[in-house]
Amino acid sequence: MWRAGFKWMFLIIGTTIGAGYASGRELWQFFGYESGLAILLFMIFFSICCNVIMRVSFEKQSSHYLPVLRNIVGDRLTKMYDIMIILYLFTTTVVMIAGSGATGQAFNVSYWWGVFFIVAALIVLFIKGINGLLAINQIILPLLLGGLLYILLLFTIDQELLLFSGLNEQRNWTAAFPFTALNILPLIAVLGAIGDKVKSKQEIWIASLGSGLILGVISFIYNNSLIQIADELLLYEIPLFAILKHYPFGMLIFMSVLLWFAIFTTAASGVLGIVSRLKSIWRIPIWLLVLILLLTMVPLTTLGFSTLISYIYPFYGILNLYVLTRLLLYPIWNNLGKGRA
Fold it and tell me: Which residues contact 120 (CB under 8 A, 6 or more apart)?
């Protein structure tokens, strides 16, 4: 039970912590000053949403997201959100591929080598199917989370930052809604593909509460660190590098490798969500479907990493607010529906 719960927890975190989150760019886009309450609300909303999605997926014993989506948004809106999920996963995977290119550039490696490397790695991963993704998540994510937390706490101590200063000023609390909403669609896509693999409701509680708590704590410390270097963030495509410049080059290398794996696991989760849906339409091998998909994505990465995040993420954060509302109210209206029946 615990082992399976942690496996799904790492899948959730791997889906959420990608180029945007781990680099700090996504957090700064939504949070920043006066956001302590917003991050606490995000932590609560995120756990509730993961729990609801996994429960529906488990009850439906689904192998792709469509039955889960239909249950959450209703028959009339399913088609629209089905298209939106595919577009969302497609565009955010483009962001991840661009993030790989941007990570390479930080070390004077050609942008296109960074893009080529992640595309090749994704094709190799999907030759092994979903088990390959689950295995790599369980190895890489504890390292990434531990490394990120270590760097952020070290920075907090070295700079003598106060983690809980300014808690009486929380005017940005509404940011919790679009930020949580942004991360909902990929979770529906990915968790909708594992319903037939979940064995018990205890696994669902471990995965949903654990992922919400971990992401909430890291988000709070990370955001607090970024506030201290706000003036420098315009100079960096990846804000994490503005923190890492204070430390030895070896640490920069180590965290950059972990950052790349965060980008990779999120790209893999996005690809999994798309191919698990398309597989029910086109009967071709998964690796070939992945290859075709990635070849259509590569030209779009020329728009640039930070540009893609600046426009795409807020847009989807607003569009997904309806899904977020349905998920948060699901326990209420689902019980009402059972009562009427």
Answer: none
